[in-house]
Each structure stands twice: as C-alpha cells, then as structure tokens.
Amino acid sequence: MLGEGAVASRASLDFAREQRSSSDLALYIHWPFCVSKCPYCDFNSHVRAGIDQDAWRDSLLRDLAHEAALLPGRRLTSIFFGGGTPSLMTPVTVAALVEAATAHWTPADELEITLEANPSSVEAERFADLAASGVNRVSLGLQSLDEDALRFLGRAHSVGEGLAALATAQRHFGRVSFDLIYALPEQTAEQWSAMLTQALSFGTDHLSLYQLTIEPGTRFAALHAAGKFEPLDADRSADLFELTAAMTDAAGIPAYEISNHARPGAESRHNLTYWRYGDYAGVGPGAHGRRLGARTVRHRKPENFLAAVARNGHGLVEEALLSVEEKAAEALVMGLRLAEGIDPAALTERLGVGSLIDPAAAARLQKLGLVEHTPRRLKATPAGRLLLDRILAEIAV
Q1: Model pTM score
Q2: Through-space distance between the first and last CA atoms of the chain, rounded to whole angstroms
Q3: Are residues 256 and 340 in the same domain?
Q4: Range of the domain at 387
Q5: Over the stretch 187-214, which tens digit does the pLDDT of each residue have?
Q6: Are 298 and 284 in contact (CB under 8 A)?
Q7: 270 & 331 share domain
C-alpha cells in the first residue's frame, strides 16, 4: 500500500516500467543492535540486554521474502549487512539470509557480500565463521589509530585490539576496508598525516575516511551545545580534506567518492548502486530502499519492526512513489558525490525529466574551476568537492 499522499504520476509509472526492465538489484540488511552507542552516531542503533537471534532471523527472512515477491527475476549484484553492529549477528543468521537472498534472486558472478564489523576481540573471533557463511568483504570500524581519539569517540576497543582484528580480517576475507574519522577537535595536519601514512601501510584496497560531523540528536551535539568541546574550524578541516586526497592519490587509492577511496576495481559495488541511482531493497529496522520508482522505509524501533512483521509479513512503515522532481534531485545529489560525476543526458532520459541541470550555472561554475562540464559528463573538481552543497544549490533546475 502506498504511503498517504503519494501520487502516481504518468512519469513515475513510466520510470517504474523502465526500472522493471533493468535487472540489477542490491540488497541492504540492517542489524540495529550495538554494545554501546557512540557519541557521534546518528544511525539507527540500539543497546539491548538480550537479543533473541532466532526471532530476529525469522523476522528478517520474512521481511526479505516480502521484498523478493515485489521484485521477481532480478539479478542480485550485492548484499550489505549494515547497522548497528552486524558482526553481532550469529553466523547462522548471516548464512540463512545469504542463502535466502540468492534463492530469491539470481546472484551475479562474484556477488559482493559486505558486513560491517567492530574490531572487538569477541567479534573478530567470528570472522572465520562469517566468511564461511558467504561474507567476502568486511568493513571494519577502526575509526582511529590513536588511543586518546578512540576514547573521545566513545569506542570500546583499543588500538592494539583494532589492529589485531584488521589482521584477522585480512586472513579471512578476500576484500577488507576500514573506516577512520578525522578532523577531530585540535587535530593537526601532522597528526593526521602520520595516522593516514600508517593506515595506508596496511595494504587494504579500500578506505572510508570521514570528517567528524556533529549530527543532531547525538551526544556530541548536546556536548557542543553545552560548550564542552568545539569542532575543528572549516578552514583547517578543508586543509585536512585536501591533504587526504593528495596522500591517497599518491598511494594509488584515490577518492572515487567524497569520503571513499579505493584501488581501481576495488570500489564498493553496493555503494556505487546508491550513488549511481540504481534499485536496492532495504530490509530490517529503519532500512531505506529504492525500488520501481518508490521510496521504502522500515520501522526504526526494533520492537515496532518485529510487531509489524508479525502483523503484516513485512516491516514497512512507508512506501511512496517518488515524483520526477524528487528522483532528479536525488540522482544529482548522489551522482555528484562520485569522482566520475554523472552523464546528464543519460540521466534525463532514464528519469524522464526535461532537464536535470542549469547549463548557464554549469558554465559559470566551470569558469570558477568548480566543475568539469562536457556534453556527456558533469563532475565536481577537487576544489568543487569542498563546495558541493553550493554547487548543487546553483546547478539544479
């Protein structure tokens, strides 16, 4: 059932028909539980004293079956277990979900199956079994290689524990990525350069490098409002962003997206589906999806999700067709995050819109050195990536 107020315009229906003819599909599965809540995190994560793994496995499988029934005949290109902390799932649950997904849909050759993991010793002990369950790519939340920074970020692991988990992951998974957070209060270029040099020495083919942001509703937001700490100023953050780009480029792991860096061919196939505006099914508490021209949202609170699945056979709380204008805006925002940018002509044809960008604004921004614009390509320059919000505001029609 469509969400209240959804309007199925002719263009939306045309887009839905077109998307049905495109067989590729990505799958996102959300595990909502964490051992503790990090002060910077605004993701849908919850701390619970006990988790009924059997009940959660059954509910996620039912939610997955609901999406599969609406998307028959698709080719599954990736599965991504996100959270929360998916490495808290039992390998039995992971295996059951992988088996179900590859039975519902035809798996692509070299299907990418990613699982986010925290580097605690308890979770690292599961890596061998998770690999045996089908996971072939892990994204490890190291977040820092400095003990003081880990304490500031509220992380439960030490540097030593994190490095041991990374070594274990590299033994068991064919592809390994890890996250670091930089631009912390008072962090210097010298400090970040030393940490990034160490990170690049570990030999992974993918890094996710995020600047610390103060998200509404987080503990950091409350501390900042109370004057307990001050974020790094914008100019110094921009300097660190440029330093990051220069160092990763030199190491052969350039930024293919604003915060994500990879050796050629090692990009996250799953996340590329988001940024290239492809279809993806979202399963589990708080999971978002985009399929057949519609936006889908699941219940966020774990208990509400379980009740909805028991009642309806799925965890949906919202399902609404996107207008042509909404699709165009989303595709532009997502696509310009990529180093490759977008093909405006191909996107306007695919989305059924008359125009995606303002050519005069694109020409003006190109003269300023913020974008590169040709008949078949629009992308932000390295300088433009620092001002992406401004570019989007000016260039969108």
Answers
A1: 0.91
A2: 31
A3: no
A4: 325-397
A5: 999 999 999 999 999 999 999 999 999 8
A6: yes
A7: no
